[in-house]
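Hi R.,

Here's the chain you asked about this morning:
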Amino acid sequence: MLQTQDPIVAVVIPSYKVTRHILGVLARIGPEVQRIYVVDDRCPDSSGDFVEANNLDPRVTVLRHAENQGVGGAVMSGYQAAIGDGATVIVKVDGDGQMDPSLIPAFIAPILAGEADYTKGNRFFDLEQIGSMPPMRLFGNAMLSLLTKLSSGYWDLFDPTNGYTAIHRDAARHLPFSKISRRYFFETDMLFRLNTLGAVVQDVPMDAVYGDEVSNLKISKIITEFMAKHVRNFFKRVFYNYYLRNMSLASIELPLGALLLVAGTVYGGLHWIDSARAGVPTAAGTVMLSAMPILMGTQLLLAFLAYDISSVPRRPLQKRGLPGSRRA
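And the predicted structure, written out as tokens:
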């Protein structure tokens, strides 16, 4: 990729109740970063004032929210400020000290090399390190990863709630900032939005680091709020990618497979109930008329799934010459 100017790397740090750790995080950010944005998300500890009073790093700019917007809102504010200042790559690091700033070069390298538009941490890469993860968090992440693969279309990614990320400006500037989920669902919703753009996303291996903090990941939240949002994003993604922007054989396989599966199940179920009430076995022909559409429907749905898995974006947005994009 031809370079016409040196890349500018910016770091966004959402700041909410992190005054104990944030100065240490800032001190560990290396010289590969040119700009740092600390976003005070209406922090009750006035972390923005604390940083301004105690920080000596000239790269740091403090942004403030009049109302708390959650981590998603803080990151979006940081993205917009960084894009406005001409950043090439924008890294998001938490201010609680759980994300090692020395890993920033590993996150920005695939983006600067033109291999990815977005990178995110993966704490599951090293199987020996997974033992340090609390069992409930491990189970919750496994469930979320499966749901995220379905809703986002990125079948080769894991650890969807990992908030250590980096993004190229050509992907960030096309995000619908006002529509992205602001709180717990933020990281997962980002993946869905990136897929609708056709952005290339890559996992970056990192260690799982946990202290004695209490996890906010609750199974009840996964089953209720997260499940509903995953279902919504799945159908929106399918509509955008398989009907609005493009048509393929998979566009036929999905509805036809679902129709056959439901029809066969309903037909067989109704006749099974009638036979059970009458106390007689269901006729072999009826069983076949039920089984055939179920088998055909299942095959079509599996064919759609195989197509969807093979359709993970492979060509980065930064190489496509999008309107308004600039080469790094």
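The radius of gyration is 24 Å.

Let me know if you need anything else.
M.
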